[in-house]
Specification:
single chain; alpha+beta; 7 strands; globular
Length: 165
């Protein structure tokens, strides 16, 4: 397993598709891009910025439940890519026992961002899907506040017709 850092949530243009970027904590600095939904991206951006909402998001609720029940999220592991879908596991510790629960990566990353838990990626998965991104200049780097603003604009522009097939 390779330890990863949650470095950013971006919007991939021209499709306006949110993507979360996980980067190796050490080593070659490979990045694993995972396309996620807009609500999940907004929630991750809020967590990265440390923003709170008047009412808890689902991920805040789950984190609160885990804390109240004395369950620790030890780590998140991005495990595989199957038929263009990523999979992840939550490794939970309760009463000295470890429990592994399957999760969507976006939900797992959301929980990790809120609990400060470590994110890992399977070695073979990172070898196959990890990319080396060009280093950006500081002037070109979007800060978390700009990302949240972009997501708010994106969500405000969504219409029900956008989801019809």
């Amino acid at each position: 397993m390779v330890e990863m850092r949650l470095v950013a949530v971006r919007v991939e243009l021209p499709s306006n598709t949110p993507v979360v970027l996980l980067q190796e904590a050490s080593g070659a600095g490979r990045t694993l891009p995972i396309f996620i939904g807009s609500p999940e991206a907004t929630a991750i951006a809020y967590a990265l910025q440390g923003q709170t909402t008047p009412r808890p998001f689902t991920h805040d609720l789950i984190g609160n439940l885990l804390e109240e029940l004395g369950v620790q999220l030890e780590r998140v592991v991005i495990t595989e890519l199957r038929e263009a879908t990523y999979y992840a596991d939550l490794h939970l510790r309760s009463n000295g026992r470890t429990h592994v629960v399957s999760s969507r990566p976006s939900d797992a990353i959301n929980l990790a961002a809120r609990t400060g838990s470590t994110i890992y990626c399977d070695d073979d998965l990172l070898d196959a899907e990890g990319v080396q991104l060009a280093t950006e200049d500081d002037d070109d780097t979007e800060d978390a506040e700009d990302l949240v603003g972009q997501f708010k604009e994106f969500i405000e522009g969504i219409r029900p017709e956008d989801f019809s097939t």
